[in-house]
Amino acid sequence: MLERSPTSLPRMPRPGSRRGVLLVNLGTPDAPETREVRRYLREFLSDPRVLDMSALGRWLLLNLVILPRRPKASAEAYRKIWTDDGSPLLVQGRALARFVQTALGPDVPVVLAMRYGNPSIAAGLDDLRGRGVDRVCVFPLYPHYSSASTGSTLELVYRLAGERWNTPFLDVVPPFFDHPGMIAAFAAIGRKVIDDLRPDHVLFSFHGLPERQIRKSDESGAHCLASAGCCDRIVDANRNCYRAQCFATARGIAGGLELEATRWSVSFQSRLGRTPWIQPFTDVVIPELAAKGVRRVAVFSPAFVADCLETLEEIGIRAREQFHTAGGEDLRLVPSLNTHALWVKTVIDLIRLNGGGV
Fold first, then answer.
1. Taking the model in full, what pTM does it have?
2. Both 212 and 230 in a single domain?
3. pLDDT digits (tens, 9 = 90+) for 226-250
4. Residues contacting residue 121 through CB under 8 Å, at least 6 positions apart
5. Count: domains in the chain
6. Is the pLDDT of residue 213 over 70?
């Protein structure tokens, strides 16, 4: 009798074994009030992957500079975008989880978690374990890799998973900055805004990072930020470079919209402190565009897959007011992916590709 090849044996599920999905975004305070924002910022900025400096320097900066001043201003900003159902980031995250749950079916539990704040990653892992999940597909909802987002999230997931006697088996969705589905979803959303606004210029504004973090991602030690064209394409040296991945996303969306090279550009927002951050800066570019005679601008924020403080308030309110003050006519935020059908399909495809489907 011929033996069957091991690859031809039927795959039999283990009794009690179950797959699940943990969607993870960065986080949000529980309420748009100073106390809750201070608690959130303390957790967020105490992370050595976010403020990558000595422990003493981080403590001094956080407790003597940031926390005495920033929570009140941030709470005021959050109040401008807060909804009856809560933080937009959390509301959109829950909606996305429901869509994904419906598509994957009841046999694959889908749980939303936040790296900072609530619902926590620890609670998410406990929830999945309580539903009999042994194999977890971890989906960091950050298109681009940075140690401060993806790296921090995975470090915590690995640590929490390792603390359990029965450790879950983990699959991870990698950064998806150039995934055709995500690019198509952003282009589809943006096309509606562009057709209506007829902008003179399209700006792709990404969250910023300190230059030192970009250089630390370059394992060759000689490529990132070493030349004006270092981010023109992805090569081995910058494969984990946040800035290079952002430029790749912008090129993809611009290509999908068939934008001429002179009609779009890239900038970086949300810088903090006095150390050098990656450039050009969004709040510098916007008045420069107005000074050049640009009257109408459409702004994408493709570092975020859900609308949040950085999109709705920083771009949709503050940047718009800045553009008007500088003489511009209209600056319009392109909505984020949120629960657009093409994005939901992309999320499901990435989950199934990375071990989270059935």
1. 0.93
2. yes
3. 999 999 999 999 999 999 999 999 9
4. 22, 24, 113, 114, 115, 153, 156, 157, 160
5. 2
6. yes
